[in-house]
Amino acid sequence: MASLAPNGKAGCIGMFRPETFRRASAAFFLAVVFLATVWLAVLLWTAAAPLPDWPRLGLLLLGAACVAVIVASFAWIRKEVERRRRSEEELQRLNQALQTALARAQEADRLKSAFLATMSHELRTPLNSILGFTGVLLQELPGALNEEQRKQLTMVRDSARHLLALINDVLDLSKIEAGQLKVARAPYDVRAVVERVVASVRPRAEAKGLTLELQTDPAVGRALGDARRLEQILLNLVANAVKFTQQGGVRIQVDMVEDGRLLRFQVADTGPGIAREDFDKLFQPFQQLQTGLDRPHEGTGLGLAICRRLAGLLGGRIELESEPGRGSTFTVLLPLELPEQPHPPNAKATPPP
To answer: What is the pTM of this model?
Structure first.
C-alpha cells in the first residue's frame, strides 16, 4: 500500500514539494510537446519533398536534444524522489527517537516525583524527631547538662537543622521545575514579613559585629500574594548578605515603584562583590563561585536558584548590581497584587547598565 506523503498524495509523486512537482511536470510536458511537434514537422516535410542534408541533420540534432531533455527530466525527477525519500526516512527516524526520549523523560520524572514524595516523609520524620528530642535535652527537662554535653547537643541540633533545610531546598526546587509548587494569593502585611526576616537574621549579624539596617517606606502596607514565599526569598537574601560580609553591614530597603504597582525589596551589603561574568552562574542550581573542600563558606548553591524561580512564580523578578570589592545589591521586584495566573519562573539576574 502506498503511503501518503505530507502533501496528501500517494506514492513517489506525493514525495515532491508542490512547487517542485509543478515545475517538473511543466518541463516534462513542454519537452514532450516540443518533440512531438518537431517529429511531426519532419514527417510532413519529408513526405512533401525530400530535404537537403543540412536541414535534415539539424532536425535530427534538435530531436536528439529533445530526447536528451526528456531523459534529463526523468533522471532529475528520480534523483529528487530519492532525496525526498531519504529525508522522510531520516525525519521518521528522528521523530521516533524523540518520542522514545520523551517517554523515557516522562517516566523518569514520574519516578522522581514518586521518590521525592516518599523521601520527603521518610527523611523529615526522623530529622524532626532528632530536633525535638535534642530541644528537650537542651532545655534540661530530663536533668542537668554539663558544658560539654550542651556543646555536643547543640552541634547535633545545628547539623539536623542544616540537613532539614537542605532537604527542603531540594524538594522545593524539584517541585518548581516540575510545575507542582503552588503559590498562595492572600492579603498579608508586608512590613510584618520584612520585620520577621530581620529579627531572624539579626543575632547572626550581631555575632559578626555587623550592622543590620531596615528602611521601610511609610507607603508600604498590605499586599496580595504569598507571604510565606516572599519571606523565604528575603530570608535567603539577607542571610547570604550576612554570611558573605565580614565588615560593615547589611541594609534592607522596602519601597514602592512604578506608581505604586510594584514592591521593591533591596538587600545591599558591603561584602566582596561579584564579577559581572559570574551573574548567571550565581543563579544556577548547585553552582557556587567558590568551590573546593577548603571554601570559607558552606552551602549547596540552591538558595539563589530557588529565589529566582520563586520570584518568577510570584510574577516578579530578581536583579543584581555588584562589582568586586564594592559589595552587592539584590533587588526583588514583585507586583503589589499577584495576578490570577502568575508568570512562569523565568526571571533572571539583570546586569547593571
So the answer is: 0.59
Nearest CA to 301 out of 331, 281, 316 is that of 281
How far is it, in rounded angstroms, from Cα 298 to Cα 170? 16
- Using DSSP bridges, classify how beta strands 211-216 and 249-257 pair: parallel, antiparallel or unpaired: parallel
How many Å apart are CA 166 and CA 173, to the nearest integer? 11
DSSP H or E run through 51? none
DSSP strand E in 240-344: where? 249-257, 262-269, 317-322, 328-335
DSSP state of 162: H
Alpha helical stretches, state H, 139-226? 147-177, 190-207
Ranges under pLDDT 70 in the chain: 1-33, 35-64, 66-67, 70, 113-114, 116-121, 178, 285-301, 341-353
Residues 6+ apart with CB under 8 A from 349: 279, 280, 282, 283, 308, 318, 319, 320
